[in-house]
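Internal tracking record. Fields below are filled automatically when a chain is submitted to the structure queue. Please do not edit lines marked as system-generated. If the sequence contains nonstandard residues, flag them in the REMARKS field before resubmitting.
Queue: standard
Priority: normal
Entity type: single polypeptide chain
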Amino acid sequence: MDNYYFINYGILLLTLLITLGAQGYINYKYNKTSKIQSKISKTGKETAEKILKENELKNVKVTFINGNLTDYYDPRKKMVKLSEGVYDKTNIAAISVSAHECGHAIQDKNNFFFLRLRSALVPIVNISSSAGYIAILIGVIFSSINFIWIGIILEAAILLFQVITLPVEFDASARALKQLESLNILDDKELKEAKGMLTAAALTYVASVATSLLEILRLVMLYTRRED
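SYSTEM-GENERATED OUTPUT FOLLOWS
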């Protein structure tokens, strides 16, 4: 077994560790802050409505969505969608997640560049996410270097999307914390917990970038090996 196999399996192991580590950390932070009730006792829905009102976002509605941590802001329908563990809960985690999604709504109102850019790339990423590995699989089966290279390029498009997502998510969290402080929704101690939870959530996006980069590196190694 040559060095390629050791490096290949090493990359796969590192990717797994990064993914599990990031997921484990956010689960820990989320579970911890879910057990801390806020002193003001606002629900996720009430928090979102207050932030939206204070930022003159009367056209944005707050709605319920099934699932856990399925929260998101829909810029097309102008909706902040809150999950079961956020919508009617009054803990720090629920309030933090709710405020974060409102941060995206504020970005939308202010035409935040990276949010617009990410939205524009969604159709390309939707195609790349499935077509990339199909091209690579065809390349491997038929020993076609060209198909492998096409697959790598498509995977790189996904990496670009994930990189652009970083400033979108970090900025939304920063806006969320600013709103929670300025509107006196959380006190200083609660804000510290909220910041820790939102930072852990942001690190999952950093982990996605790292794992995608490692996967592209692995594919390039496959490409160059077959080319030789």
